[in-house]
Amino acid sequence: MVSQCCALNCFPRVKIIHTSKKIYGQIYIPEINWILMCLCLAVTIGLRDTNMIGHAYGLAVSTVMFVTTCLMSLVIIIVWKQKLALAGLFLAFFGSIEMLYISASFIKVAEGGWIPLVLSGICMVIMYVWNYGTLKKHEFDLENKVSMKRILALGPSLGMVRVPGIGLIYADLVTGLPAIFGHFATNLPAFHQVLVFVCIKSVQVPSVSDEERFLMGRIGPKEFRMFRCIVRYGYKDLQQENHDFETQLVSRILAFVEIEGEECMVVPSDKPSSEFGASDTELSSLPTPVFPSPIDGSNTHCSLDIEVMRPQAGGLMECSITRDESVEILKARESGVAYILGRSHAQAKKSSPLLKKFAIDIIFAFLSRNCRGPDVILNVPHSSVLEVGMVYYV
């Protein structure tokens, strides 16, 4: 249940260990096991009465039975496509019996039955606040995405410079530039020679092959040297992070650049330029490449000043632009790779009600500080981490 809640952004991020390659739901969560151990010890040592523990257990079990019956009635209507009357009869028959048990258990609330009520209330508050806070942060990211026009407009005024190296910017957005990049470029108008916006996605399969792991695309004109990479992991791959991730990523970028160069070769060299329909492109897979499909709606001009080379080994001809870009990417790799992570803090607006301020500024902030961060999940080396702090007003 905690794993499903984490997938739905209804619970803080925890460490989930999948113990089977065949059964998806066979998992182990160390944090939850420790919490359950502490709760069991607290209830046993605190109550010291088997009758009170039995009252708490009876109320919990009878309530779970009634909730299961209610959910089963929804399954009859939605999944089995049965009539509403049949689901009503099912709920009335079994629900009335279970309500008798619940009513009998509520008499014992003062004698230990309050324990499951308090625990369920705490869990409900945590789930609701976490879901509300993450939803507002995601809406903030969508509303404050940085457009390519803004970067082009801010560049000359801020005097942006490119420093040697490759910058990997981790973000949850698969389209557009994240707000942390605009915040970083505004306060420090210098970024790496090659920028790669990395988005990690988990899929419900045990493992993803190396050929299907990376989805590459380009952001903006070629001279920007900005790429987008969507990395897909299976639930077993997340615990087996390869130490050569940087090497694999650079090789995929070089392969993507070569594929673009081969596509450019089909265009006559007397045309000075060609206009593509998007500034952000994506390939479905590298072994059987398809020409990039548009993601964003802005336009990009790709210079096709091509110098036709003589056939090389294997009968391939390369574009001089592609060759120069590949050399620059390799030089940037030798200069080093930096991992740029967003360290965002959600804060309620001054005009927000007192209850919202308490939920966001205290509860959600506490949960955010104590949950697993992206640097731990992604196994990022600490010596190469660059955190960008940003306040989200929700």
TrEMBL record:
Bilayer-spanning residue ranges: 27-47, 59-80, 87-107, 113-130, 151-171
Main location: membrane
Membrane topology field: Multi-pass membrane protein
Subcellular location: Membrane
A GO MF term: potassium ion transmembrane transporter activity
Limits of the K+ potassium transporter integral membrane domain: 1-152
Domain K+ potassium transporter C-terminal span(s) in chain numbering: 164-392
Keywords: Ion transport, Membrane, Potassium, Potassium transport, Transmembrane, Transmembrane helix, Transport
GO cellular component, one term: membrane
Stated family: Belongs to the HAK/KUP transporter (TC 2.A.72.3) family.
Protein name according to UniProt: Potassium transporter
